[in-house]
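Report of the visiting student (M.T.), summer placement. My assignment was to run the structure pipeline on a short list of targets and document each run. The first record concerns ADP/ATP translocase.
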Amino acid sequence: QFTGLGNCIATIFKQDGARGLYQGFFVSIQGIIVYRAAYFGTYDTVKGMLPDPKNTPVVVSWMIAQTVTTGAGIVSYPFDTVRRRMMM
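After the run finished, the structure tokens were exported:
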């Protein structure tokens, strides 16, 4: 359908104007806010519950980060779905 990035941008701009290039933008921002809030809020809370948060082994910090990342992704995924549908 498109020959490259520039062609894609030009085609969307010709068909829908500048508004077409930013379709789904505000839902993206909301999804990012939800993701970051879930990530940092949960990570800091869990890390603070450890007996000695400043001397946490790297493996434990990594496991917490992976779990929190997965949870934040699950919570924010509906925003990504809405964003994609709005762009179509």
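The helical segments are 5-21, 25-49, 58-87. The chain is about 80% helix and 0% strand. I thank the supervising group for their guidance throughout the placement.
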